[in-house]
Specification:
Blueprint: H1 3-15, H2 18-25, H3 29-43, E1 48-51, E2 54-57, H4 59-83, E3 89-95, H5 97-114, E4 118-124, H6 127-135, E5 141-145, E6 153-168, E7 184-187, H7 193-204, E8 211-214, H8 218-226, E9 231-235, H9 236-239, E10 248-251, E11 259-267, H10 273-286
Parallel strand pairs: 3-4, 3-5, 7-8, 7-9
Antiparallel strand pairs: 1-2, 5-11, 6-9, 6-10, 6-11
Helix pairs in contact: 1-2, 1-3, 1-4, 2-3, 5-10
Length: 288
Protein backbone atom coordinates (compact mmCIF):
# COMPACT_ATOMS: atom_id res chain seq x y z
CA UNK A 1 0.00 0.00 0.00
CA UNK A 2 1.51 3.29 -1.16
CA UNK A 3 0.70 6.86 -0.21
CA UNK A 4 -0.40 7.52 -3.78
CA UNK A 5 -3.01 4.76 -3.42
CA UNK A 6 -4.34 6.42 -0.29
CA UNK A 7 -4.48 9.83 -2.01
CA UNK A 8 -6.56 8.36 -4.81
CA UNK A 9 -8.82 6.54 -2.35
CA UNK A 10 -9.33 9.72 -0.29
CA UNK A 11 -10.07 11.74 -3.42
CA UNK A 12 -12.72 9.27 -4.57
CA UNK A 13 -14.40 9.52 -1.16
CA UNK A 14 -14.12 13.32 -1.00
CA UNK A 15 -15.38 13.88 -4.56
CA UNK A 16 -18.12 11.30 -4.36
CA UNK A 17 -17.04 9.16 -7.29
CA UNK A 18 -14.43 8.14 -9.85
CA UNK A 19 -15.19 10.81 -12.48
CA UNK A 20 -14.81 13.85 -10.25
CA UNK A 21 -11.83 12.33 -8.42
CA UNK A 22 -10.06 11.79 -11.75
CA UNK A 23 -10.65 15.42 -12.65
CA UNK A 24 -9.36 16.55 -9.27
CA UNK A 25 -6.25 14.41 -9.56
CA UNK A 26 -5.67 15.16 -13.25
CA UNK A 27 -5.81 11.46 -14.09
CA UNK A 28 -7.89 9.45 -16.56
CA UNK A 29 -10.88 7.63 -15.06
CA UNK A 30 -9.59 4.19 -15.98
CA UNK A 31 -6.39 4.81 -14.03
CA UNK A 32 -8.31 5.83 -10.91
CA UNK A 33 -10.61 2.81 -11.23
CA UNK A 34 -7.64 0.47 -11.65
CA UNK A 35 -5.78 1.92 -8.63
CA UNK A 36 -8.84 1.56 -6.41
CA UNK A 37 -9.31 -2.06 -7.52
CA UNK A 38 -5.60 -2.79 -6.90
CA UNK A 39 -5.86 -1.31 -3.42
CA UNK A 40 -8.87 -3.50 -2.64
CA UNK A 41 -7.05 -6.58 -3.93
CA UNK A 42 -3.99 -5.69 -1.88
CA UNK A 43 -6.06 -5.35 1.29
CA UNK A 44 -8.36 -8.25 0.50
CA UNK A 45 -11.55 -6.25 1.20
CA UNK A 46 -14.17 -4.24 -0.67
CA UNK A 47 -13.71 -0.55 0.13
CA UNK A 48 -16.88 0.57 -1.65
CA UNK A 49 -20.40 -0.72 -2.03
CA UNK A 50 -21.17 -0.30 -5.70
CA UNK A 51 -24.66 0.53 -6.91
CA UNK A 52 -24.36 1.09 -10.62
CA UNK A 53 -22.08 4.09 -11.00
CA UNK A 54 -22.60 5.15 -7.42
CA UNK A 55 -20.01 4.33 -4.76
CA UNK A 56 -20.68 4.16 -1.05
CA UNK A 57 -18.02 3.50 1.56
CA UNK A 58 -18.12 0.00 2.98
CA UNK A 59 -17.39 -0.55 6.71
CA UNK A 60 -13.82 -1.53 5.76
CA UNK A 61 -13.55 1.60 3.62
CA UNK A 62 -14.72 3.73 6.54
CA UNK A 63 -12.01 2.22 8.74
CA UNK A 64 -9.33 2.75 6.11
CA UNK A 65 -10.38 6.37 5.56
CA UNK A 66 -9.47 7.29 9.14
CA UNK A 67 -6.01 5.75 8.77
CA UNK A 68 -5.54 7.25 5.32
CA UNK A 69 -6.28 10.75 6.64
CA UNK A 70 -3.73 10.36 9.43
CA UNK A 71 -1.03 8.81 7.24
CA UNK A 72 -1.39 11.46 4.53
CA UNK A 73 -1.35 14.24 7.11
CA UNK A 74 1.78 12.77 8.69
CA UNK A 75 3.47 12.52 5.31
CA UNK A 76 2.70 16.18 4.65
CA UNK A 77 4.00 17.12 8.10
CA UNK A 78 7.22 15.21 7.39
CA UNK A 79 7.60 16.93 4.02
CA UNK A 80 7.06 20.33 5.59
CA UNK A 81 9.54 19.57 8.38
CA UNK A 82 12.42 18.54 6.14
CA UNK A 83 11.86 21.50 3.84
CA UNK A 84 11.50 24.00 6.69
CA UNK A 85 14.54 26.20 7.31
CA UNK A 86 13.47 27.00 10.87
CA UNK A 87 15.71 25.26 13.45
CA UNK A 88 13.68 22.83 15.56
CA UNK A 89 13.99 19.43 17.14
CA UNK A 90 17.03 18.18 19.07
CA UNK A 91 20.59 19.36 18.50
CA UNK A 92 23.07 16.83 19.89
CA UNK A 93 26.35 18.68 20.40
CA UNK A 94 29.70 17.29 21.47
CA UNK A 95 32.52 19.31 23.00
CA UNK A 96 35.87 19.02 24.70
CA UNK A 97 35.57 19.70 28.41
CA UNK A 98 37.57 22.95 28.31
CA UNK A 99 35.40 24.34 25.51
CA UNK A 100 32.20 23.29 27.27
CA UNK A 101 33.30 24.91 30.54
CA UNK A 102 34.71 28.17 29.23
CA UNK A 103 33.38 28.93 25.77
CA UNK A 104 29.92 27.42 25.57
CA UNK A 105 27.88 28.82 28.47
CA UNK A 106 27.30 32.21 26.81
CA UNK A 107 26.85 30.71 23.34
CA UNK A 108 24.38 28.02 24.39
CA UNK A 109 22.43 30.48 26.53
CA UNK A 110 21.98 32.77 23.52
CA UNK A 111 21.12 29.82 21.29
CA UNK A 112 18.42 28.68 23.72
CA UNK A 113 16.91 32.16 23.89
CA UNK A 114 16.88 32.58 20.13
CA UNK A 115 15.76 29.07 19.16
CA UNK A 116 13.38 27.82 21.88
CA UNK A 117 12.06 25.07 19.58
CA UNK A 118 15.48 23.38 19.62
CA UNK A 119 16.33 21.07 22.51
CA UNK A 120 20.07 21.07 23.22
CA UNK A 121 21.92 17.97 24.35
CA UNK A 122 25.62 18.15 25.27
CA UNK A 123 28.23 15.45 25.76
CA UNK A 124 31.95 15.84 26.37
CA UNK A 125 34.92 13.82 25.21
CA UNK A 126 38.28 14.04 23.54
CA UNK A 127 38.52 14.83 19.80
CA UNK A 128 38.86 11.17 18.79
CA UNK A 129 35.75 10.22 20.73
CA UNK A 130 33.79 13.18 19.41
CA UNK A 131 34.77 12.57 15.78
CA UNK A 132 33.73 8.92 16.06
CA UNK A 133 30.41 9.90 17.65
CA UNK A 134 29.69 12.26 14.74
CA UNK A 135 30.47 9.54 12.19
CA UNK A 136 28.34 7.02 14.09
CA UNK A 137 25.38 9.42 14.13
CA UNK A 138 25.35 9.65 17.93
CA UNK A 139 25.78 13.44 17.84
CA UNK A 140 25.09 16.03 15.13
CA UNK A 141 28.19 18.21 15.51
CA UNK A 142 31.17 18.67 17.80
CA UNK A 143 33.70 21.24 18.94
CA UNK A 144 37.13 19.62 18.90
CA UNK A 145 40.76 20.61 18.60
CA UNK A 146 42.69 19.96 15.43
CA UNK A 147 44.03 17.80 13.93
CA UNK A 148 40.77 16.30 12.66
CA UNK A 149 40.65 14.25 9.45
CA UNK A 150 39.27 16.28 6.53
CA UNK A 151 37.76 13.53 4.39
CA UNK A 152 34.59 12.58 6.33
CA UNK A 153 33.79 15.99 7.77
CA UNK A 154 32.83 19.54 7.06
CA UNK A 155 34.29 21.97 9.57
CA UNK A 156 34.87 25.61 10.34
CA UNK A 157 37.40 27.21 12.72
CA UNK A 158 35.79 28.64 15.85
CA UNK A 159 38.35 29.28 18.61
CA UNK A 160 42.11 29.74 18.53
CA UNK A 161 43.20 28.76 22.03
CA UNK A 162 46.45 29.96 23.59
CA UNK A 163 48.07 27.11 25.52
CA UNK A 164 50.24 27.46 28.63
CA UNK A 165 52.14 25.22 30.99
CA UNK A 166 51.13 25.42 34.63
CA UNK A 167 53.08 24.26 37.65
CA UNK A 168 53.20 24.92 41.38
CA UNK A 169 53.74 28.54 42.43
CA UNK A 170 57.38 27.93 43.47
CA UNK A 171 58.36 26.34 40.15
CA UNK A 172 61.29 28.23 38.51
CA UNK A 173 60.87 29.42 34.93
CA UNK A 174 60.45 26.52 32.52
CA UNK A 175 62.66 26.99 29.49
CA UNK A 176 62.75 23.42 28.22
CA UNK A 177 61.71 19.91 29.13
CA UNK A 178 65.14 18.99 30.47
CA UNK A 179 65.99 21.93 32.73
CA UNK A 180 64.30 21.58 36.09
CA UNK A 181 60.89 20.80 34.63
CA UNK A 182 58.72 18.44 36.70
CA UNK A 183 58.83 15.03 35.09
CA UNK A 184 55.29 14.08 36.09
CA UNK A 185 52.58 15.14 33.64
CA UNK A 186 48.99 15.77 34.66
CA UNK A 187 46.74 15.09 31.69
CA UNK A 188 43.54 13.62 30.35
CA UNK A 189 43.43 10.12 28.90
CA UNK A 190 45.09 9.20 25.61
CA UNK A 191 43.34 11.00 22.76
CA UNK A 192 43.53 14.45 24.35
CA UNK A 193 45.35 16.75 21.89
CA UNK A 194 46.84 18.84 24.71
CA UNK A 195 48.37 15.72 26.28
CA UNK A 196 49.79 14.73 22.90
CA UNK A 197 51.22 18.22 22.42
CA UNK A 198 52.93 18.10 25.82
CA UNK A 199 54.35 14.64 25.17
CA UNK A 200 55.63 15.84 21.79
CA UNK A 201 57.27 18.84 23.48
CA UNK A 202 59.19 16.48 25.76
CA UNK A 203 60.00 14.11 22.89
CA UNK A 204 61.46 16.81 20.65
CA UNK A 205 64.01 17.53 23.36
CA UNK A 206 64.95 13.89 23.80
CA UNK A 207 63.11 13.56 27.10
CA UNK A 208 60.31 11.36 28.34
CA UNK A 209 58.05 11.97 31.33
CA UNK A 210 58.72 9.76 34.32
CA UNK A 211 55.01 9.45 34.97
CA UNK A 212 51.64 10.55 33.52
CA UNK A 213 48.76 10.93 35.95
CA UNK A 214 45.45 10.75 34.11
CA UNK A 215 42.70 12.98 35.50
CA UNK A 216 39.08 13.46 34.53
CA UNK A 217 38.63 17.22 34.79
CA UNK A 218 40.50 20.50 34.62
CA UNK A 219 39.52 21.26 38.21
CA UNK A 220 41.31 18.12 39.35
CA UNK A 221 44.26 18.90 37.11
CA UNK A 222 44.66 22.43 38.47
CA UNK A 223 44.26 21.21 42.05
CA UNK A 224 46.98 18.58 41.64
CA UNK A 225 49.23 21.16 40.01
CA UNK A 226 48.79 23.53 42.96
CA UNK A 227 49.77 20.64 45.23
CA UNK A 228 53.06 20.26 43.33
CA UNK A 229 52.26 16.87 41.83
CA UNK A 230 53.38 17.76 38.31
CA UNK A 231 53.01 20.02 35.30
CA UNK A 232 50.00 20.37 33.00
CA UNK A 233 49.22 21.92 29.64
CA UNK A 234 45.86 23.63 29.18
CA UNK A 235 44.11 26.51 27.40
CA UNK A 236 44.82 29.84 29.05
CA UNK A 237 41.08 30.57 28.93
CA UNK A 238 40.53 27.83 31.53
CA UNK A 239 42.78 29.71 33.96
CA UNK A 240 40.93 32.99 33.46
CA UNK A 241 38.10 31.73 35.64
CA UNK A 242 40.32 30.20 38.34
CA UNK A 243 40.08 32.33 41.48
CA UNK A 244 43.42 31.32 43.01
CA UNK A 245 45.79 31.73 40.09
CA UNK A 246 48.40 33.12 42.48
CA UNK A 247 48.91 29.57 43.73
CA UNK A 248 50.13 28.56 40.27
CA UNK A 249 53.02 29.51 38.04
CA UNK A 250 52.25 29.95 34.35
CA UNK A 251 54.89 29.27 31.71
CA UNK A 252 54.94 30.05 28.00
CA UNK A 253 55.50 27.42 25.36
CA UNK A 254 57.51 27.81 22.14
CA UNK A 255 55.48 29.46 19.32
CA UNK A 256 54.98 26.16 17.49
CA UNK A 257 53.31 24.61 20.54
CA UNK A 258 51.38 27.45 22.17
CA UNK A 259 48.17 27.55 20.11
CA UNK A 260 45.44 25.05 19.29
CA UNK A 261 42.64 25.52 16.77
CA UNK A 262 39.18 24.39 17.85
CA UNK A 263 36.77 23.65 15.01
CA UNK A 264 33.08 22.87 14.74
CA UNK A 265 32.71 19.70 12.70
CA UNK A 266 29.83 17.70 11.31
CA UNK A 267 29.51 14.83 8.87
CA UNK A 268 29.74 15.77 5.19
CA UNK A 269 26.28 16.18 3.70
CA UNK A 270 24.64 16.51 7.14
CA UNK A 271 24.47 20.30 7.34
CA UNK A 272 21.12 21.44 8.73
CA UNK A 273 19.28 24.58 9.86
CA UNK A 274 20.23 23.72 13.45
CA UNK A 275 23.94 23.60 12.63
CA UNK A 276 23.68 26.81 10.60
CA UNK A 277 22.01 28.51 13.58
CA UNK A 278 24.72 27.25 15.92
CA UNK A 279 27.44 28.59 13.63
CA UNK A 280 25.81 32.03 13.65
CA UNK A 281 25.62 32.08 17.45
CA UNK A 282 29.20 30.84 17.92
CA UNK A 283 30.48 33.57 15.61
CA UNK A 284 28.47 36.23 17.42
CA UNK A 285 29.61 35.23 20.91
CA UNK A 286 33.17 34.85 19.69
CA UNK A 287 33.23 38.58 18.93
CA UNK A 288 31.49 39.68 22.17
Amino acid sequence: MELSDLRIFRAVVAEGGITRAAEKLHRVQSNVTTRVRQLEENLGVELFIREGKKLHLSPAGQTLLGYAERLLDMAQDARDAVQDSTPRGTLRLGSMESTAAVRLPAALSRFHERYPEVTLELRTGNPQQLARAVLDGEIDAALAAEPIADAPFEKIPVYNEKLVLIAAADQPAIESANEGTPRTLLAFETGCPHRQRLEDWFGRQGEMPDRIIELGSYHAMIGCTVAGMGVALLPKSVLDGFAEKKRLSVHALPPDHDHAQTVLLWRKGAHSPKIAALIDVLRETQSD
